[in-house]
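Ticket opened by: R.M.
Priority: normal
Category: complex prediction / small molecule

The reporter submitted a protein together with pyridoxal-5'-phosphate and asked that the result be attached to this ticket for the collaborator who will pick it up next week. Submitted input follows.
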Amino acid sequence: MEHATDELKSKGFSTRAVHAGNVEDVMTGGVNTPIFPSSAYRVPGPLGEVVYPRYQNIPTQRAVAEKIAALEGGESALVVSSGMAAISSVFLAFCAPGDHVVLQRDLYGGTHHLAARELPRLGVETTWVPSQDPEDFEAALGPATRILYLETPSNPLMKILDLEALARVARRRGVLTVVDNTFATPVNQNPLALGIDIVVHSGTKYLNGHSDLCCGAIVTRRDLMERIYGVVAAYGPSLSPYDCYLLERGMKTLAVRMRQHNENGAKIAAFLDGHPRVRQVYYPGLANHPGHHIAALQMRAFGAMLSFEPDCDTATAQVVMERLRFFKPAVSLGGVESLACFPAQTSHAPLSPEERLALGISDSLIRLSVGIEDPEDLMEDLDQALAAIG
Ligand SMILES: Cc1ncc(COP(=O)(O)O)c(C=O)c1O
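Result attached by the on-call engineer:
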């Protein structure tokens, strides 16, 4: 039995995570949404529409999109083949040559690369705002600005933006706001409820949560989605039904996973903050984080992403990394297992050394994606690795 989305609207997050979008198998009574692998469907079909994977209307695709919409509190969602497909589809939907986009300077390296190298090739101009002050963002908006693009907490220094204030500023000027909600997840933050127009996700991360899938998602109002849908159908970054199934399965446990992620993130941040071999910790849940006040207002919890500067040179930081046992030295984030990386070598490698320096990303900065293991084991692991610093 499919639960009507309206019936679920008043229900709690975990209930929506389990039930929203779910389609029972009418042939067998199986409780999970079946994987519909066909790429060829009879015309006319039972619903009178042409069904095709690139049109995003296979039931397995629709089920997971409906779940994401229910969790973000949006009217409509689409799932695509990566987080970057979600982000680039939004730019392609609303920007044309001569248009202008304003972005925060602190962004995931791939998004930075897209905006710095690819958008100009399409004749779209960009302005980067180096601060978190809404007035600076407002000053950057011009008559040709179409999109204000934001990420909070940002990758990798966890900078926090006041989403309500920025949504107000942009709406006054007729500019669409887009927020990458990958780090926060809908468990910790709902940008649409704060007035933001479009939410994008790298579903590769927490939404799926098991580091075995690459996917993305877009959530927004129906009228805006029509434009985005046109781009997705035309350029074709659809998500296979097999991957949709995995994503839907992963999302059913999002709330319980995030409970443990949030608890572990806070514990590890406090542990590192008090560690004699750590120079600085970047975690919005710490009272000494410059964005803590805003984060406490707009987030329900602070997540499990954090970065820190070990009190040593780059070569020794490399040894710290090599000594870690539970934190695997891997790119990506948001899975049940803890990961560690040097953003300068991974997420922000596409940037030049000068660009990284301007962002405050040193070669020894270590980013942690704290998993759901027992926090005591993770702290012990970090402690023995940091002992490499003499
Ligand atoms: C915050 C953020 N947004 C977007 C992306 C891009 O996602 P994907 O790798 O699924 O394309 C990433 C990838 O690391 C990310 O960290």
